[in-house]
């Protein structure tokens, strides 16, 4: 009789599909890459109100803050587009108009 243990090899149908989500993020998996980028959005009208959001949540966050004031603006969409494109001069000027600050976090 052999005293060696037989090692099991688990085979997955698609290698990256079975990895834990955090590992896919860290390894730069294409489906998780965008979620990894976060932006700090600060409401300049309400002290201490800060949200850390991915680019696709900037519009919802700023729109919700404006709605609390009874306002809405199409400039929120322009802000999100400028942030996604990396056009920081435009993003900062639009953010100033909307009384928010947007900064890249990670």
Structure overview:
There is one protein chain. About 40% of the residues lie in helices and about 15% in strands. It contains five helices and three strands; from the N terminus they run H-H-E-E-H-H-H-E. It has a three-stranded antiparallel beta sheet. The mean pLDDT is about 80.
Q: Secondary structure elements and their pairing?
A:
Layout: H1 21-26, H2 30-36, E1 39-43, E2 50-53, H3 58-68, H4 75-85, H5 88-97, E3 100-104
Antiparallel strand pairs: 1-2, 1-3
Name its key features.
alpha+beta, 3-stranded antiparallel β-sheet, 106 residues, 42% helix, globular
- Helix-residue proportion: 40-55%
Largest sheet: 3 strands, antiparallel
Structural class: alpha+beta
Topology pattern, helix = H, strand = E: HHEEHHHE
Concise account of the structure shown:
It contains 5 helices and 3 strands.
């Amino acid at each position: 009789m052999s005293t060696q243990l037989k090692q099991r090899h688990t085979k997955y149908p698609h290698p990256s599909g079975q990895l834990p989500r955090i590992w896919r993020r860290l390894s730069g998996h294409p489906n998780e890459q965008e979620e990894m980028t976060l932006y700090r959005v600060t409401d300049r009208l309400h002290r201490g109100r800060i949200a850390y959001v991915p680019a696709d949540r900037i519009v919802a966050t700023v729109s919700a803050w404006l709605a609390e004031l009874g306002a809405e603006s199409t400039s929120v969409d322009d802000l999100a587009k400028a942030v996604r494109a990396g056009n920081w001069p435009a993003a900062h000027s639009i953010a100033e108009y909307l009384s928010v600050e947007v900064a890249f976090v990670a």
